[in-house]
């Protein structure tokens, strides 16, 4: 790169700077977890359940223990010596009581049952194959339909609902609006189960030392978050665990938190007292790493005669599996479905279901179904109304001139630009020319299609959910004059060392080559959740931006003092410090640094020695990113094959630090989108076996399946330091509907894709073209229906609430310790009740405030009252409780946030 | 994902290899390119006591002309075969099919014999051997034998090969110099095993189809010879053959299965179409020639 070094001319932000990471990665000198080799280190492998559901009768390890090289074989009974509380990403306890290894029962194929520790991985696997696990097999629940009607996945729970939100009663108000609409359009999507498939599978090396401290190398998305998770889960002081992750090959959400296998390695290393290594292999990664997606949802929307949205309703369900990384009904699907569109009324019901399949984890754009449902529905509506896909969006999108705008669910937007991105995209695509070409091609029996989609995405979230905090940047100009940055960023391919160095070089006025970024170690920098929720560019970028300015200010004050000039007269450029009007006073940063460190007497009075700055950036709670994409495809009507001809992205991620890095993020997300729409699928058979156990059967998009993308950067700086918006997940969110819409457009001469079942295999595309069941999908659905009908005949298990006996009415006056088990974790507070006959009043008091209530009722031990809450969102909490002598149990209905379980005991 | 322990032998002659296979009493597996076997070993789906590496046996490598045909040594790599002039001249159908076997990288190690002997029903090489009328030469300590390709395959990954036997050659008969090649396959990604595919050759003499060899892959438990279609084609003039009707006959010989990637109905539907396309192109090429 040709860097100009004259005063004020050095620009790094916005440049395609060569990545600092590439040197070591391209020559095979990266330091991944498997590259860690410690003296005395032993290897771990897991014995996994081959049965989806059942009771463990016995685990016979005798023969395995005799194998050469074997040091220990642990079951849950052994690991239980060190109590562990598994947590979700929000640091809330996992509701289904998940243990590190199976505890008496298995609930999915691939569940770890025993752990073998041996001299080598091969010896561990040899021994593992001799561990005999006898399981009394029970019929598993595999699908959401199974979960609705089958027996309990987790004995002891009320039902198979892992999480539920939304308000079914709201349909009473919405349905008439939909019924009265000029046009009603429905979109049903069956989203397949995805295996996350990062290039580097999960990995963990845990090294205990004699003082109770532990160093852990782990494939993760933030060493800080992993260390905090481990300390909480194990109940250890955070500072006793150090997590290091220099290079990680892809995270995507799978590596947000350590899961059963990684935590088990840490626990076993403590128990056994030697360093242990576990490297997940691809078979385990495909079948036993947390899966993603598997959702079924129907969105119905009403439109007026001009194609303007009038009302919408969505019924959403997802298959959480047996042990999800946090039970989830995906409220974000509904929260972010409509803020970019003018929709007057919206309601939903949303549920996550337990089944006997591998648990779900977060995956790039975990709420992406909202964009897929909405954008494919809009195109369906456009075809129905006979208007163009661009026009229907123009009539409904929230443009900058419409803002601030608040969605029906209360999300306020004030700087989103999906409409502006769309206009910029349209200006760069010859739609009329394409339509002409499409018409001519159809005459020759060739089917071209053009698809559009627009979306917004909440990025850089901070301050509203447990681990989503601000970020700290610590910078030093060393005595050598070179710059060192200590950051809590983490790259699993993101190139954060590059982008952060660009920000520093530009803001500080030094050469990019003179900036060293240290990250990937919980002992470096301060707490930050790393790569999660498209945040590092926004928050770490802002922190680094401001810290660099603070450091530059100190340099200027020092230089001004040394030169008897004012700080405003000082400029820093290319590592040189210049004083305006006094070229002879120019000094290198090295000279200034040598004085700042070695001759503090020459510094301004009272100034600390050295050249350091630190800034922790707390950005706005959320920063919105917008985009519009289009793609063009050709569908072979004889074989049902889809060829992507062109794909153009028009995104607004605010300030672009490095276009190459931004485009890499978009392209990566789009490759995943193409995989989800056309290729990838993790099917399960009726016995609960995952069927795609190798990459021969699990089809990842290859280079031949991904086109060269074209990029338009439509940048509106955000209201953050530096103006960056997050761009990590966007491609994976907007990609699927863009491609589906193009395919649907190509198929429009034949028929509508009535129900969208992913992936759109060639057979499913022939279903649409030929209007018959080529793919056998309907055949399978009928079989599922039959199975469901059969199950419904079986007696439903009694609900715990129905069998609990009602006690006599006792006095409830006084203070109670109350716990509300909400979807994002438990909340505990003090409840004070006063009953005056049948009238109930009192207050709920927590550290962050007290809410009084009155007008409640108290009859036959049943307590009913309402509490209005304004923060973080306006919601009325409706309590319905049953009081006993010393305990209160019941439920709290939290509007669209669903229902929480409530328990209380006397203080 | 580590293989179960095994012993490793690298014989330098066919005789030595056969002796090792015999002594192992069914516990040995032959490794050539290892492109399928090594993943199977790692998944412990294959757990031989002895791995017999045939890469050190020169007699199993190379391509040569024999009486009435071309002989391919089973340990010849797919990449070598792809660029072989003799093969290009005499067996263009085989070379066309080879271009679809795996990927550039896997063809450097993958061998012709490995693919033929494995019997993956959706693979190109077994179907090409059946279509072109190849003979598979087999050796063991009990003696040598030859088996016609269309009698070699019994089921998915199952062949007539006994545990002590070694494939020592694949002999493809000559086709007339001006024969036409037919090849079509539908795979979700380039290099994948086919959802459905067909390969074959047609020869014409005196204005009539004189010889036809056609086979399916991905259309049943083994490569499937389209016998009825071959019979219907022979004796017909290229301009008069009804491609649609012949494709129906060809599909009638198949028994495709359904999986999560494609249903049996898809394979039949699209199989019929690619057969028609390939046959029409071939017949038109002959008509205008």
TrEMBL record, chain A:
Give the start-end ranges of region Disordered.
775-807
InterPro entries, alphabetized: Ald_Oxase/Xan_DH_a/b (IPR000674), Ald_Oxase/Xan_DH_a/b_sf (IPR036856), Ald_Oxase/xanthine_DH-like (IPR016208), AldOxase/xan_DH_MoCoBD1 (IPR008274), AldOxase/xan_DH_MoCoBD2 (IPR046867), AldOxase/xan_DH_Mopterin-bd_sf (IPR037165)
Question: Which GO MF terms does the UniProt record name?
Answer: iron ion binding; oxidoreductase activity
Q: What is this protein called?
A: Xanthine dehydrogenase
Report domain Aldehyde oxidase/xanthine dehydrogenase a/b hammerhead positions.
27-139
Listed A to Z, the keywords are: Molybdenum, Oxidoreductase
Q: Matching Pfam families, A to Z? A: Ald_Xan_dh_C, MoCoBD_1, MoCoBD_2
- Cofactor(s) the record lists: Mo-molybdopterin cytosine dinucleotide
Q: What ranges does the record list as Basic and acidic residues composition bias?
A: 775-793
TrEMBL record, chain B:
- Asked if the keyword Oxidoreductase belongs to this entry, the reply reads yes
Every copy of the FAD-binding PCMH-type domain together lies at: 1-177
The organism sits in which domain of life? Bacteria
InterPro entries under this entry? Answer: CO_DH_flav_C, CO_DH_flav_C_dom_sf, Diverse_Substr_Oxidored, FAD-bd_PCMH, FAD-bd_PCMH-like_sf, FAD-bd_PCMH_sub1, FAD-bd_PCMH_sub2, Mopterin_DH_FAD-bd
Q: Which SMART domains match?
A: CO_deh_flav_C
Its Gene Ontology molecular function terms? Answer: FAD binding; oxidoreductase activity
Q: Which keywords annotate this record?
A: FAD, Flavoprotein, Oxidoreductase
Tell me the protein's name.
Carbon monoxide dehydrogenase
Originating organism: Novosphingobium endophyticum
Give the classification, highest ranks: Bacteria, Pseudomonadati, Pseudomonadota, Alphaproteobacteria, Sphingomonadales
């Amino acid at each position: 790169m040709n860097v100009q070094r004259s005063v004020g001319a050095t620009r790094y932000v916005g440049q395609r700077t060569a990545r600092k990471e590439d040197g070591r990665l391209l020559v095979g000198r990266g330091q991944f977890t498997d590259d860690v080799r410690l003296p005395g280190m032993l290897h771990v492998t897991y014995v996994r359940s081959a049965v989806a559901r059942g009771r463990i009768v016995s685990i016979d390890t005798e023969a395995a223990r005799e194998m050469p090289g074997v040091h220990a074989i642990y079951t849950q009974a052994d690991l239980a010596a060190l109590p562990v509380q598994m947590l979700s990403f929000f640091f809330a306890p996992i509701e289904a009581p998940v243990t590190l290894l199976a505890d008496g029962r298995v609930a999915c194929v691939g569940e770890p049952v025993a752990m073998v520790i041996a001299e080598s991985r091969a010896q561990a696997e040899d021994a593992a194959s001799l561990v005999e696990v006898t399981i009394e097999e029970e019929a598993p629940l595999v699908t959401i339909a199974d979960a609705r009607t089958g027996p309990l996945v987790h004995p002891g729970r009320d039902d198979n609902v892992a999480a539920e939100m939304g308000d079914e009663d709201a349909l009473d108000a919405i349905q008439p609006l939909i019924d009265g609409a000029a046009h009603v359009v429905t979109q049903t999507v069956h989203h397949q189960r995805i295996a996350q498939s990062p290039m580097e599978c999960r990995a963990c090396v845990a090294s205990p030392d004699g003082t109770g401290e532990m160093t852990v190398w782990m494939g993760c998305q933030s060493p800080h978050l992993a260390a905090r998770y481990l300390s909480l889960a194990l109940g250890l002081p955070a500072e006793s665990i150090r997590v290091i992750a220099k290079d990680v090959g892809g995270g995507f959400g799978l590596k947000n938190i350590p899961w059963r296998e990684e935590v088990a390695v840490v626990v076993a290393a403590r128990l056994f007292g030697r360093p242990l290594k576990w490297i997940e292999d691809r078979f385990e990664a495909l079948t036993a790493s947390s899966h993603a997606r598997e959702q079924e949802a129907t969105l119905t929307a009403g439109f007026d005669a001009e194609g303007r949205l009038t009302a919408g309703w969505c019924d959403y369900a997802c298959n959480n599996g047996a042990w999800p990384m946090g039970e989830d009904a995906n409220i974000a699907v509904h929260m972010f479905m409509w803020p970019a569109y003018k929709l007057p009324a919206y309601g939903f019901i949303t549920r996550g279901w337990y089944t006997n399949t591998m648990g779900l984890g977060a995956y790039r754009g975990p709420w992406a179904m909202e964009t897929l449902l909405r954008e494919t529905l809009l195109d369906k509506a456009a075809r129905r109304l006979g208007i163009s896909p661009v026009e229907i969006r123009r009539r409904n999108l929230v443009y900058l001139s419409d803002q601030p705008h608040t969605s029906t669910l209360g999300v306020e937007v004030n700087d989103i630009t999906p409409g502006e991105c769309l206009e910029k995209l349209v200006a760069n695509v010859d739609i009329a020319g394409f339509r002409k070409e499409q018409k001519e091609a159809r005459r020759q029996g060739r089917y071209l299609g053009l698809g559009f989609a627009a979306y917004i995405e909440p990025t850089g979230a901070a301050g509203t959910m447990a681990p989503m905090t601000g970020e700290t940047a610590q910078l030093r100009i060393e005595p050598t004059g070179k710059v060192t940055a200590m950051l809590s960023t983490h790259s699993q391919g993101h190139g954060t060392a590059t982008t952060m160095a660009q920000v520093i070089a530009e803001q500080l006025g030094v050469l990019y080559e003179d900036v060293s970024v240290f990250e990937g170690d919980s002992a470096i920098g301060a707490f930050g959740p790393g790569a999660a929720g498209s945040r590092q560019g926004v928050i770490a970028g802002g922190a680094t931006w401001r810290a660099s300015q603070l450091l530059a200010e100190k340099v200027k004050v020092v230089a001004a003092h040394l030169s008897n000039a004012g700080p405003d007269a000082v400029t820093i450029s290319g590592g040189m410090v210049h004083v305006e009007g006094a070229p002879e006073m120019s000094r290198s940063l090295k000279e200034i640094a040598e004085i700042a460190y070695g001759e503090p007497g020459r510094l301004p009075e009272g100034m600390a020695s050295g050249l350091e700055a630190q800034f922790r950036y707390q950005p706005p709670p959320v920063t919105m990113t917008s985009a519009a994409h289009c793609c063009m495809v050709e569908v072979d009507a004889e074989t049902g094959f889809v060829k992507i001809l062109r794909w153009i992205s028009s995104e607004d991620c605010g300030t672009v630090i490095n276009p190459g890095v931004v485009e890499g993020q978009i392209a990566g997300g789009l490759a995943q989108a193409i995989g989800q729409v056309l290729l990838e699928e993790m099917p399960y058979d009726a016995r609960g076996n995952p069927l795609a156990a190798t990459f021969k059967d699990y089809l990842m998009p290859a280079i031949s399946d991904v086109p060269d993308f074209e990029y338009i950067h439509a940048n509106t700086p955000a209201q953050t330091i530096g103006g960056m918006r997050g761009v990590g997940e966007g491609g994976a969110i907007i990609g699927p509907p863009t491609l589906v819409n193009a395919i649907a457009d190509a198929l429009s001469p034949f028929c509508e894709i009535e129900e969208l079942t992913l992936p759109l295999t060639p057979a499913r595309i022939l279903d649409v073209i030929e209007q018959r069941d080529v793919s056998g999908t309907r055949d399978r659905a009928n079989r599922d229906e039959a199975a469901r009908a059969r199950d419904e005949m079986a007696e439903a298990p009694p609900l715990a609430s129905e069998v609990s006996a009602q006690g006599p009415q006792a006095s409830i006056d006084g203070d109670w310790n109350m716990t509300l088990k909400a979807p994002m974790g438990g909340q505990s507070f003090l409840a004070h009740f006063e009953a005056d006959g049948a009238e109930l009043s009192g207050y709920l008091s927590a550290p962050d405030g007290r809410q009084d209530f009155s007008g409640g009722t108290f009859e036959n031990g049943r307590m009913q009252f309402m509490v209005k809450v304004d923060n973080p969102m306006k919601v009325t909490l409706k309590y319905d409780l049953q009081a006993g002598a010393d305990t209160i149990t019941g439920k709290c209905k939290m509007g669209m946030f669903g229902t929480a379980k409530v328990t209380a005991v006397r203080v | 994902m580590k293989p179960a322990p095994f012993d490793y032998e690298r014989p330098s002659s066919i005789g030595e290899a056969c002796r090792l296979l015999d002594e192992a009493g069914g516990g040995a597996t032959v490794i050539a390119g290892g492109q399928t076997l090594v993943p199977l070993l790692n998944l412990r789906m294959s757990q031989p006591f002895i791995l017999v590496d045939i890469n050190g046996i020169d007699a199993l490598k190379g391509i040569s002309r024999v009486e009435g045909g071309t002989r391919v040594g089973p340990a010849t790599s797919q990449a070598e075969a792809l660029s072989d002039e003799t093969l290009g001249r005499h067996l263009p159908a085989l070379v066309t099919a080879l271009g679809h076997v795996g990927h550039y990288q896997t063809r450097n190690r993958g061998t012709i014999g490995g693919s033929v002997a494995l019997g993956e029903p959706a693979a190109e090489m077994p179907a090409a051997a059946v279509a072109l009328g190849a003979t598979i030469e087999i050796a063991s300590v009990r003696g040598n034998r030859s088996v016609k390709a269309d009698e070699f395959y019994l089921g998915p990954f199952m062949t007539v090969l006994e545990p002590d036997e070694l494939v020592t050659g694949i002999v493809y008969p000559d086709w007339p110099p001006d024969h036409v090649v037919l090849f079509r396959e539908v795979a979700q990604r380039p290099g994948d095993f086919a959802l459905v595919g067909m390969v074959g050759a047609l020869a014409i003499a005196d204005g009539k189809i004189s010889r036809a060899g056609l086979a399916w892959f991905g259309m049943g438990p083994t490569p499937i010879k389209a016998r009825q279609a071959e019979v219907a084609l022979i004796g017909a003039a290229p301009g008069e053959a009804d491609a649609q009707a012949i494709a129906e006959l060809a599909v009638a010989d198949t028994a495709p299965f359904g999986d999560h990637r494609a249903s049996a109905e898809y394979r039949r539907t699209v199989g019929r179409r690619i057969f028609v396309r390939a046959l029409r192109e071939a017949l038109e090429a002959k008509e205008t020639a």
